Amino acid sequence: MLALRCPPAPRPARALLERGLSLRGFSCSRTGRRAFPPVDLDVPRGAVAGVMGGNGAGKTTLLRAVAGLERATEGTAAFDGRPLDARTRRRTCSLVMQDVNHQLFGDSVRSECELALGGAASDAAAERIAEVLSALDLESLPTRHPMALSGGQKQRLAVACALLARREVLLLDEPTSGLDFGHMVDVSRLVRRLAERGISIVVVTHDREFISRCCDSVYHMED
Q1: Which residue among 23, 72, 84, 141 is least enclosed by CB atoms within 10 Å?
Q2: Per-residue pLDDT tens digits for 31-74
Q3: Which is nearest to 194 in space by CA: 132, 138, 115?
Q4: The pLDDT value given to residue 93
């Protein structure tokens, strides 16, 4: 008599975080090919996850897909246990690009912040803008044109807009690229302060010193 061999039981799926960002088998395709292998990642509220990998591993594409700027073709993304489609990801997540010049459109720091609030110019909006600019050391620059800011100031302005828009997931693409040690330390402190607000933060970086200073976990992407 032939013995029947039962297939192995599937492993139970990891539970979604009740508070924070969860990716399960998450990937996207370009020209019919996976842009990166499926990703399983948990980033609780108040935590910072570093993402490392070689050039071409798909790190930036991962951030764009999480932000809803690339169409996810596999797996799921969820926040606080709720699945996120592309539209909801765009409302929940904010991506600060490596070249932040591509995402600043206002003619002053204040107008850039007003855009993040949907064009609001009320007293309440002005109060919120002043509070966030002060928290990010930009309070003296409300009339400055964004393109006249330093690289670090532009980066902080993009973060300010994410906070004003009440984004709950912050995605940073190589935030310390080209910075000296002192400025890298400043950025690491800023990221930790932002995490203390209860935001889930994902940072793509090659900077191991930066990771050691501010990341709670590290995810390695294979080429």
Answers
A1: 141
A2: 889 999 999 999 999 999 999 999 889 999 999 999 999 999 99
A3: 132
A4: 96
Distance CA 126, CA 120 (A): 9
- Nearest Cα to 177, choosing from 103, 98, 73, 93? 98
Amino acid at 91: R
The CA–CA distances, whole Å, from 18 to 22, 78, 82, 83, 223 equal 9, 10, 9, 11, 31
Is residue 4 in some structural domain?
A: no
Identify the domain containing residue 121 by its residue range. 20-221
Whether residue 128 lies inside any domain: the answer is yes
Residue 5 in domain = no
Domains identified in the chain, total number: 1
pTM of the model: 0.86
Dmax over CA atoms of the chain, in Å, equals 85
The pair of three-digit structure tokens given for residue 125, joined into one six-digit string: 């909006």
Residue 6 lies in a domain: no
CATH code for position 192 = 3.40.50.300
Q: Rounded distance, CA 167 to CA 188, Å? A: 19
Find the helix or strand (DSSP H, E) in which 170 lies.
strand 169-173
The b-or-e profile of 134-168 (16+ CB within 10 A means b, else e) is: ebbebeebbeeebeebeebbbbbbbbbbbbbeebb
